[in-house]
């Protein structure tokens, strides 16, 4: 069998049609793939929602006053209370009542605890003649008081000395420390 390798116009035309058909098939396949890819990506439209918030911490500040108008940040510094209550020249049968004030200047409600009282020094220790040798300190309570921001309250305390207070206490000194706690 012999193969005819003669180039005729019909053969050239047939080869061109075959090549065009192949190009057309590949072209259509490519377009089909692009169409599928476009359909897949066009179905995945997206959108976002964003949120932000400014954040800040609360402030907790309890201030103290002796008159209800002049206020102090009453934190103890090196164990020394910031507000000094004048209480001098106690004599026998003394009965002194003082009112002290606290207020919340923080940004959140505060639950006040106490007050607690501690006495120290020679005036409150030792012994002498009489039924009660040392001055007594009676302090009111606040119970479970909650103060809103910018709200305040007061408590009274009373210092009494015995009627027959011993002369050994003359010139003695002592310290009464009153502490309030505050939690938010």
Secondary-structure element sequence? HEEEEEEEE
Shape: rod-shaped
CATH class of the domain at 62-183: Mainly Beta
Instruction: Report strand %.
Output: 25-35%
- Based on secondary structure, the structural category is alpha+beta
CATH architectural arrangement of the domain at 62-183: Sandwich
Taking pLDDT < 50 over at least 5 consecutive residues as the criterion, the unreliable ranges are 128-132
CATH topology of the domain at 62-183: Immunoglobulin-like
- The share of residues in helices is 10-25%
- Indicate the radius of gyration in whole angstroms: 47 Å
Major sheet strand order = 2-1-3-7-5
Q: How many beta strands in the DSSP annotation?
A: 8
The major β-sheet equals: 5 strands, antiparallel
Count of discrete alpha- or pi-helical segments spanning 4 or more residues: 1
Distance between the termini: 107 Å
- What is the residue-mean pLDDT, rounded to a whole number? 79
Structural features, described:
With 184 residues, the protein is α+β, with helices and mostly antiparallel strands. It has a domain at 62-183: Immunoglobulin-like (Sandwich), CATH 2.60.40. The chain has one helix and eight strands; from the N terminus they run H-E-E-E-E-E-E-E-E. The protein has one helix spanning 9-42; strands at residues 62-65, 72-73, 95-104, 110-120, 136-139, 145-147, 152-160, 175-183. The chain has a five-stranded antiparallel beta sheet with strand order 2-1-3-7-5, with no helix packed on it. The longest helix is centred in the first third of the chain and has 34 residues, at 9-42. Residues 128-132 have low confidence and may be disordered.
